[in-house]
Amino acid sequence: MASTYSTDLSLELVTTGEKAGLWGSITNTNLQLLQTATSGYVEVTLSSGNTNLSLADGSSSADGKNLYIKVVGTLSGNASLTMPASTTGGNANRVFFVEDGTTRGTAAESWTVTLLTTGQAGATQVPLPEGSTALVYSRGSVPATTLGMLQKGMTSVTAASKVAYTAVAGDQIVVDTVANPVTITLPLSPAVGDEVTIMDGSASNGFATNNCIIARNSQPIEGDAINDTLATNNQCVTLIYSNATKGWLYKSTNQ
């Protein structure tokens, strides 16, 4: 009877009496896979579109089996990283870290990176904020979930080259309105507890001169179906999503 393969890491499971003379090689490969799953590091280059990770049977070089994945590269469009939902052995459950090391295109662009499990719908993908590190749980047929944002993202929006930006959950956005007002659009389909921080990083002509408009993107802000405006220099606010009735609430503000 031929070997079978485990779920998750797809380790080779040798049937009793089979693979004579090959046990040493197979066992060593399995041990390498276990080492990869507990301490492995890999860099995956993104550009645009989808990049699929691998959980190939018995492969010690399959990138999806690493504990720590750093995404790198200069984006030319929105990009996603997909963990397989299954292996030959069945449902694949994976817990792993993802660090963002990408360059999100030119100053005028705002390309995004999302994390997902094979077959997952767009609205439930996990956004990876620029410069962040996340702990992710991919549960096979169940959508990928962010267990924690270990290092929140930090991105800059400079009005001289970009006057609009759509935030993702976990974003910390430094806004420079020296040249023009800027519109920050909140996430379209937020989950309860999602947060976005917006701060005035202008050297001059800050929010009091050129306002920062917060576009609600179909969700209420403090229960009202209207956008909000930040109009105080050096202002810094954090919004947290509460529910469909109240929408986004100000968790903190320094003004």
Count of helical stretches: 1
Output the strand order for the largest sheet. 3-5-9-12-13
Shape: elongated
| Structural domain tally | 2
Strand residues, percent:
35-45%
- Elements, N to C (H/E): EEHEEEEEEEEEEEEEEEEEEEE
The radius of gyration computed from the alpha-carbon positions, rounded to a whole number of angstroms, is: 22 Å
**Major β-sheet annotation:** 5 strands, mixed
Low-confidence residue ranges: none
- Mean pLDDT, rounded to whole units? 90
Can you count the beta strands?
22
Strand-pairing-aware structural class: mainly beta
Helix content: under 10%
Distance between the termini: 71 Å
Features:
Jelly Rolls, five-stranded mixed β-sheet, 1 helix, elongated
Task: Detail the topology: elements first, then pairings.
Blueprint: E1 4-5, E2 12-13, H1 23-39, E3 41-45, E4 49-52, E5 68-74, E6 79-83, E7 86-87, E8 90-91, E9 93-103, E10 113-117, E11 126-127, E12 133-139, E13 142-151, E14 155-158, E15 164-166, E16 172-176, E17 182-185, E18 195-200, E19 212-215, E20 228-230, E21 236-243, E22 247-253
Parallel strand pairs: 3-5, 4-6, 5-9, 6-10, 14-16, 15-17, 16-18, 17-19
Antiparallel strand pairs: 1-2, 7-8, 9-12, 10-11, 12-13, 18-21, 19-20, 21-22
